[in-house]
Amino acid sequence: MERVLLLLICFLLLSQPNNCSSSLSFNSSTPLCHSHQSSALLHFRNSFSVGDSDDYFCDLYSNPPKNSWKMGTDCCGWDGVTCDTMTGHVIAVDLSCSGLYGPIHPNSTLFSLRHLQRLNLAYNDFHGSTISSKFGGFANMTHLNLARSSVAGNFPSEISHLSKLVSLDLSGNYGMRIETPSLKRLIQNLTHLTELDLAVDMSSVPPNSFMNLSSSLTSLSLFMCGLKGRFPDNIFHLPNLQLLDVSSNFNLTGSLPTYNWSTPLNFLGLAETGFPINLPNLVSNLKSLKQLYLSNCNFIGSSNLAFLPNLTQITSLDLSYNNFSGQWPWSLLNNAGLTYLDLSHNNFIGQLPDLSTNRTQVSSSNSSSNSQSVSQIPSNLVSLFLSYNLLNGTIPSWVYTIPSLRYLFLDYNQFTGHIGDFQHNSLVWLWLNNNNLHGPLPVSISKLVSLTSLRVSFNNLSGNVESKIFSKLKSLGTLHMSNNPLLSLSSFTFATNILPKLYSLDLSASNITEIPHFLRTAENIEYLYLSKNQIKGNIPKWFLEVGKDSLSNLNLSYNFLTSVGHLLWKNLQFLDLRSNLLEGPLPVPPLGISFFSVSRNNITGQISSSICNLSSVNYLDLSYNHLNNVMPSCLGNLSNHLVDLDLQSNNLHGTIPTTIAKGCYLRSLKLNGNQLEGPLPQSLVHCRKLEVLDFGNNKINSTFPHWLETLPELRVLILRSNNFHGPLGNPKTKFPFPNLRIIDLSHNEFHGHLPTNLFKYLKAMMNVSANKGELKYMGDDYYQDSVIVVMKGLFFELVKIQSLFTTIDFSNNNFKGEIPKSIGELGSLKGFNFSHNNLIGRVPPSLGNLTNLEWLDLSSNKLEGEIPVQLVDLTSLAFLNLSENYLFGQIPQGKQFNTFTNDSYKENRGLCGFPMTNACGNDEGQQPPPSSTIPEVDFEFENGFHWKVVLLGYGVGFMFGLGLGYLVFSSGKPIWLVNIFYGEQDDKVQRSKKNARG
Which GO terms of the cellular component aspect does the record hold (predicted)? Predict the structure, then answer.
């Protein structure tokens, strides 16, 4: 009976009973893989290095292991291999996420598999190899996937020969280019295409090349292709199109249908494009919409979001980076199918809904009538991005109970309260940093065994952090716990054999006293930030072996280290050792270093010429040490890649290297506070990107370097306290110094008349409105400039320079003649100092136009006449010094002038009136106004910091307070409170978001 049943099965399945062996073994009736195809597969895979895939997609959706590929076994049973059940030919190969590394050779054995119908090599690293024309030889190919496989070069037109192709995915290979002729052939010949993903470089392709796409197309993705111009309208009307993604084509525009838009579209991505979007109209037309991505878009019409809960089919919604404000309609969470929600980088206010009461909590400034009903926990939510908003209150308990939640980003808000207990282990990324959370780090974090990234920095967390919290987190790669002043890490830092996959650790400002011992086993560490701690003494020898081949960023600044030893890190690119107690000779960083700072230490000796072997260095800061001898002449050769060079406050002498490369890339050069002499190197004219030049406090002997006028980006020029001499003369160029904001020529031997024409062309000091708006600083993400200036008679170091900060200091020279009236056009000026010269004539009334002026010093000259009454209108003026001149007449009264003391006017025998003791004739108004009428003045600076002070007259205490206040306001916060360097780059966050959509 069994024999009959088996024979019947053979007949029904194969219709060829003779294929069933006499032994009636069903397995043996299936054709075996052909030996030459088995060998071809093995040879192909063995032509690559094989490791762990580091692509984020592969972390999300792990593929079966490819460890079953062994010689002598049936390849039809190998992981990722499919054979034709009739012939045994290999018809499908899936090697995606296999960690393959190396080029695909044109004579690869892969191309001998002529029967292939499906080929998936996505998420590997083929090392920039080109796609061979032999890919066009797979005549039966229906599915080809090379997504994110690091292929490059021109797209081979032979792929257009694959007439049976229904799915082509080349996405994420931005080294590949598709030209217009190849694209047109592809569209013309591949008439059966249903899925097309061409996220490659198509910057030379006009969008109308897509006009004739097949009507059978169901999916079209052109993400970040460099497309520009108008997108064809007809594509929105393709009858079968379900997915359309043209996101991140910044110069792509077009128009969406406004009526009669009948489409099965369920995925629409228009993020970061120029499409004008009427959101209510779009939502009303797209009834089947499930995934909508509109990050950083151009919205027109109403911005009312109250209708969004009507999107009952929506599963993924991205409205990030759109500056939306007000309350978010949280009732959208009622949608049981919602899996992805990104509202980050907006200005939403209020609190997350408290589902225990089925009502939305509202802030005290809002009426309870604005609360919105939320009836259920969004139990299918996978990704929740709410970063960079104004949300407050506690994080509600339901957030910790969603079983599917993998990505939770609540950073940069105003959440308070404790971090709750996590009920499930699904979380992969958890970012709670930059809030007002307090209390302990919950032990329930130990449940999150899938966690790869945890950030809780910049909160008020407290209590002991035990190593047992992290002992089971074997996948954790990023751990940032910095700047929690009450958090104790002593137990955690001495643990061993935990966090084996850690590659980014930030424990800055965490009160630790030693380098954490668990780093001994951190073989993959790449980013390590331990700045602003209490780490003392020598760097231990074992630490120099940590991440020897992997460490790229190391920040040990603001500690108490005395020695670093021989640096062994081969791939180190960023090393910050500033503000320690390092002694001895200058440490030698690895040759591949990009950022190197040992500023503010006790390093002695000379700068060896070996520093010039740093062929990749962009930022070199050796300032505030005790380095001596001469500057190596070869430093000039670094200028073709060096961006910032800071050698100020050392004991260097000799001349400045004169050979500056023609391809000079310098943006900032600071040599202040040395013993350098000789002239300035005129080869600096090659540095067209120069913004900051500081040669102050040296012994440079030269005339004014008029050739600097031609530098178009120069913003700061400091020549203070040198031996410059001769007249300034008028500019040699028609439009000199167009961007100059700070110029300090004080304490030199310049003479002659002030250059009237110079002040007429200082455009950056004139345009007040152009300097207002968003608070910006000179520098970049890696390095922000600092400078020492004289403000209100005192020296201050601006640890960051506001781009709107402007000052002129020509004091302590031998200038003569009158003050040019054209200075009154410099409406952005904050400070103006012409003291200690031989200037004559009257104080120009035009100075009353400088409404932003905060200090004015014209003391120790030969000025005469009355003080212009127009100066009373300078309501920002906090410091005035007109002493030691020949001024006469009554001192103007009112506003700020009621706050200045006698010191502002002394040694002007002709002046009278308050606050001088000598009255003006019979005038009775010489007494200071009664205390009840002394004005309260509000100082509110552009960064929102507000300071109120009662002006009781100018004195040393007020002077110091106002000066220090300006320093704090200008810098936002002192540099020792600024954590500039930490964490992965933003592109990793964007990449995680894109992959988290699914």
Answer: plasma membrane
